[in-house]
Amino acid sequence: MQTRLFAGCLLTSEIKMHLRNSSAWHNAQLEPGHLITVPYESKEYLGRYLNKERHTIQDLKDVQMILNRTLAACCPDLAGREFEIKLFTHTFVA
Fold first, then answer.
1. What is the pTM for the complete model shown?
2. Ordered DSSP codes for 11-54
3. What is the Cα–Cα distance from 24 to 18, expressed in whole angstroms?
């Protein structure tokens, strides 16, 4: 059994619409370390799993910066917006 910490923002219908229409987003998904979509409590979140064993506030700020930059680069209409980061755990059973 493994527990991992996920940091990301709520994937709203507005963000989904922009991402669906973005060729830059589709190309970015082919790169290693890209942002992923994860379900949690009947909602979808966009972000990434934190890979360290111990995490700092700076790790969370880094995820928020990556998220904001990626969304701004892929969806210019979202540029300049700050997205609230949520944290939650996922437990994987092998």
1. 0.85
2. --HHHHHHHHT-HHHHHHTTSTT--EEEEETTEEEEEEEE-SSS
3. 11
d(CA 51, CA 25): 23
**10 residue type, one letter:** L
Q: From CA 19, how far away is CA 13, in angstroms rounded?
A: 10
Strand-strand pairing, 2-10 and 36-40 = unpaired
pLDDT exceeding 90 applies to what percent of the chain? 31
Measured between alpha carbons, how far is 46 from 13 in angstroms, rounded to an integer? 12
What DSSP character marks residue 57? H
